[in-house]
Amino acid sequence: MKYFYLIANLAKELVPETRAYIIDRLEKRGAQCRFLSPAQQNKYGKHTPSELVPSETECVITIGGDGTLIQAARDLAGRNIPLLGVNRGHLGFLNQVSTEDEIEEAIEALTQDRYELERRMMIRGTVFHEGKPVFQDIALNEIAVTSQVPLRVLRYQVSVNDEYLNHYSADGVLVATPTGSTAYNLSAGGPVMAPAGRMMALTPVCPHSLNARSIVLAPEDRVRIGVSNSGRVSFDGDSTADLETGDSLAVERSGLETVMIRRKKQSFMQNLSDHLSGI
């Protein structure tokens, strides 16, 4: 690889210094590196418009927390540019590089074309109002439906492939990908799934029932969630859409995927064990 693009959350501690270090190490190896100018950063905030990332880009390096990488995946969906995350956040399940030694090792491997790629499943959610689609977006982690009013319990009617499944009285209901299984889904008591898998987890959030359980679904399944009162759907905690009484949300596998650089020396099980032991 020779052409890189950096996406950094400059509000986080040590991120500006880390970005400067990565640029220096890349350029010393003859690589070219682009990133948003200060004016563009002020204009677009946490977003990176896809059209600003050059077509010759071979790898995007994100610097920050998992949220920085997820935002990059959403912004650049469909470009199939491999992503590598450098962790300057808290847990960093997605960001596999943290220390200077790991950064140095990763840059050397990338510039010498010694790396592996892993394709991550994404999901698509469509909001229906009076039977017509009115909003659609994608997610790498999860799509969640909650109340518009904090701490208000809603009643959700859930069906899978147009077959009734259950009613949930809960703070929310979410559909998570394998990548997102270690995020909101894990906090809500859902299962951990291997990131390269092709499946979805349907998980009630704080259900008011002892028999409400998370369910793992096949990638070809289609989930529909209806609300008894006004609700809100969020995509990776970023974009949102309001739901009125009678509206519904349909969630299914997206045709888009996120491509990630995977370090050969660290397996998913090792990464999971390291993070769970530190929670």
UniProtKB/TrEMBL annotation:
Catalytic activity as recorded in UniProt: NAD(+) + ATP = ADP + NADP(+) + H(+)
InterPro entries: ATP-NAD_kinase_N, ATP-NAD_kinase_PpnK-typ_C, NAD/diacylglycerol_kinase_sf, NADK
HAMAP family per record: NAD_kinase
General function of this protein: Involved in the regulation of the intracellular balance of NAD and NADP, and is a key enzyme in the biosynthesis of NADP. Catalyzes specifically the phosphorylation on 2'-hydroxyl of the adenosine moiety of NAD to yield NADP.
Active site: D66
Keywords assigned: ATP-binding, Cytoplasm, Kinase, NAD, NADP, Nucleotide-binding, Transferase
Named cofactor requirement(s): a divalent metal cation
GO MF annotation terms: kinase activity
Subcellular location: Cytoplasm
Broad class of where this protein is predominantly found: cytoplasm
Protein name from the UniProt record: NAD kinase
Organism the protein comes from: Enterocloster alcoholdehydrogenati
SUPFAM superfamilies referenced in this protein's UniProt entry, alphabetically: NAD kinase/diacylglycerol kinase-like
EC number of the protein: 2.7.1.23
Domain of life: Bacteria
Residues making up the signal peptide according to the UniProt record: none
